[in-house]
User: Which sequence fits this backbone?
C-alpha cells in the first residue's frame, strides 16, 4: 500500500514545515529526497498517530524479518536507505494492510500479522513491499509534468492518516478532492505490481521462505475482496495494490515445477502473533482462542498458548494467574528445549509488576548477556534499576545502549530520566534534546539544548560538547523557520 493510505490529521501537515526537497524542477525525486520524505512521515506517524505500536518486541521481529529479506536484494540497499537498513513498524489496526514509504519505511497492520496463516505468507507481503521501495516505484510515479504537485503530494501524504481505516471519512470537500487526485497518482500501477511480485518472489526464495506463501496470500485476499465487490469499503491493501487473476496466475506460473519446500514457522513469529492477540483483542476472546489452541496443539504450540494466556492475564492485571501460566510455559519450554528473549522479558515484566525490581534486574542482567541486541530487555533493565533506586547502574546501561542501538530515541529518553534522578541538569536536558532531535522534533530539541546550556553544572568537557551541539541544533532550527516562511 502506498503512503497515502496511512494518513495523519491534516493539521500536522504544516506542523514544522515540509522537508527541504532540493530542486524538483525536473520532476524527479532523488534517493536522498526519498529518504528525507520517508523519515519525515515516519517521525509524524510514531509521534502523533495513536495507532502506532511502540512495542520493541513486535518491531524487532518485523525488522529482523525485513533484514532477512532485504539482505538478498541484488546490488544491496544503500541507494535506498543510505547507511540505515529498512525500518519496519507496526500499526495497531485490525485491517489487512501493509504500506511502503520512500526511503525504506514499511508499516504493517497488526491485522495482517494475525491473519497470516504462515510466516512465509507474512514474509511474502513484506518482500513485495521491499521491492516497491527498492525499485523506487513512488519516485518513478512522479512524472515530469507533476513536479509542481510534489510539495502538495508530500504534504498530503503526511496529512491523510485520518482515513486509514475509514476511506469515507469526511475531511472537507476541498481536501477530499486533493486527496483523491494524489491517491490516484500514488496508487501502484499494474506494471509496478507485477515488478514487485516478480522481485518479491525472488527475495522470498533467496531468504529461505516457502515461495508458495505469495500466491496463497493473494488467493485469500482475492476471496476476501470479492465480499466487497462494487463497494467503496474494499480492504485498503486491494485499493492500493490492484489484485487481478492475471497477477495471481503469473505468480503461480513462476513457481510451477519447483520442488516443494516446507518451511516451519519460527518461534518468534508464533510468539509475536500471540502477543498481538493478547494485546489487541478482548480478554475473554484472547483466553478462549489460546485455551482452544492448548487442546489440539503440539508441544511448541502449547508453549505459545501458555505465553498468550500469561500475557493476557498480565494485561488484565491478574498477576497470580499470569504467574501460574508462566510456570506452565517454563515447564513446556524446558521439555521442548525452547528459548526466547520474549520469555525472559515477560518474566521481568511480571517481577516489575509485583514491585520486585531488584529480582527483575538480576534476571535481566543475565538475559542481556544471552541477548545483547534485544531492545525490550535493554529498556526493562533500565526501568528495573530506576525502580530499584539505582540510577547510576541504569545510566551505565543507557550508555552501553548508545553503542548497541544507534540513534535510539527511547534510550536517550531513558538516559534523561537517569540524569534527572542524579540531579545532573545539563546532562538531563542534553539527553532529552537528543531524543527529540532523532524523532524530528527540532523546536523541542532546541528548547532542551538551551536549557542544558544554561544549567552550567557540567564539567568543562560536558559544557564544550553542549555548546557544540547547541550550534548544530540551532542551525537546523533556523533552517526550519526559513522553510516555514516560504
Assistant:
Amino acid at each position: 500500500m502506498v503512503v497515502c493510505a496511512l494518513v495523519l490529521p491534516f493539521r500536522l501537515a504544516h506542523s514544522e514545515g515540509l522537508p527541504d526537497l532540493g530542486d524538483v524542477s525536473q520532476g524527479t525525486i532523488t534517493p536522498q529526497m526519498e529518504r528525507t520524505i520517508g523519515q519525515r512521515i515516519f517521525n509524524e506517524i510514531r509521534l502523533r498517530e495513536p495507532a502506532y505500536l511502540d512495542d520493541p518486541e513486535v518491531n524487532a521481529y518485523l525488522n529482523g524479518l525485513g533484514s532477512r529479506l532485504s539482505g538478498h536484494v541484488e546490488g544491496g540497499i544503500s541507494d535506498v536507505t543510505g547507511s540505515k537498513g529498512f525500518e519496519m513498524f507496526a500499526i495497531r489496526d485490525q485491517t489487512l494492510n501493509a504500506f511502503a514509504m520512500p526511503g525504506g519505511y514499511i508499516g504493517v497492520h497488526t491485522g495482517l500479522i494475525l491473519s497470516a496463516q504462515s510466516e512465509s505468507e507474512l514474509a511474502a507481503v513484506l518482500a513485495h513491499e521491499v521491492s516497491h521501495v527498492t525499485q523506487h516505484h513512488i519516485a518513478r510515479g512522479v512524472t515530469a509534468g507533476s513536479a509542481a504537485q510534489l510539495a502538495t503530494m508530500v504534504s498530503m501524504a503526511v496529512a491523510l492518516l485520518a482515513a486509514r481505516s475509514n476511506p469515507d471519512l469526511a475531511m472537507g470537500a476541498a481536501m477530499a478532492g486533493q486527496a483523491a487526485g494524489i491517491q490516484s497518482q500514488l496508487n501502484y500501477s499494474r506494471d509496478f505490481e507485477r515488478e514487485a511480485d516478480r522481485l518479491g518472489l525472488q527475495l522470498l526464495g533467496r531468504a529461505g521462505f516457502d515461495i508458495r506463501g505469495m500466491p496463497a496470500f493473494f488467493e485469500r485476499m482475492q476471496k476476501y475482496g470479492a465480499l466487497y465487490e462494487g463497494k467503496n469499503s474494499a480492504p485498503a491493501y486491494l485499493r492500493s495494490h490492484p489484485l487481478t487473476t492475471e497477477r495471481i496466475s503469473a505468480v503461480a506460473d513462476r513457481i510451477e515445477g519447483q520442488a516443494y519446500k516446507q518451511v516451519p514457522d519460527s518461534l518468534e513469529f508464533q510468539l509475536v502473533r500471540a502477543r498481538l492477540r493478547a494485546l489487541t483483542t478482548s480478554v475473554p476472546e484472547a483466553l478462549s482462542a489460546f485455551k482452544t489452541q492448548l487442546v489440539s496443539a503440539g508441544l511448541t504450540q502449547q508453549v505459545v498458548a501458555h505465553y498468550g494466556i500469561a500475557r493476557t492475564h498480565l494485561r488484565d492485571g491478574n498477576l497470580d494467574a499470569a504467574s501460574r501460566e508462566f510456570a506452565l510455559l517454563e515447564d513446556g519450554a524446558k521439555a521442548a528445549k525452547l528459548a526466547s528473549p520474549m520469555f525472559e522479558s515477560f518474566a521481568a515484566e511480571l517481577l516489575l509488576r509485583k514491585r520486585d525490581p531488584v529480582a527483575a534486574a538480576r534476571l535481566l542482567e543475565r538475559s542481556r548477556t544471552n541477548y545483547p541486541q534485544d531492545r525490550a530487555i535493554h529498556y526493562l533493565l533500565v526501568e528495573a534499576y530506576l525502580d530499584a533506586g539505582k540510577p547510576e547502574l541504569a545510566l551505565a546501561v543507557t550508555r552501553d545502549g548508545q553503542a548497541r542501538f544507534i540513534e535510539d530515541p527511547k534510550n536517550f529518553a531513558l538516559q534523561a530520566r537517569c540524569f534527572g534522578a542524579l540531579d545532573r541538569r545539563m546532562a538531563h536536558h542534553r539527553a532529552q534534546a537528543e531524543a527529540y532531535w532523532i524523532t524530528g522534533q527540532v523546536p523541542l530539541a532546541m528548547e532542551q539544548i538551551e536549557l542544558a546550556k544554561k544549567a552550567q553544572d557540567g564539567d568543562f568537557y560536558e559544557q564544550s560538547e553542549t555548546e557544540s551541539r547547541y550550534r548544530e541544533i540551532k542551525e537546523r532550527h533556523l533552517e526550519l523557520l526559513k522553510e516555514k516562511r516560504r
Confidence is low (pLDDT under 50) at residues 1-19, 21-26, 159-180.
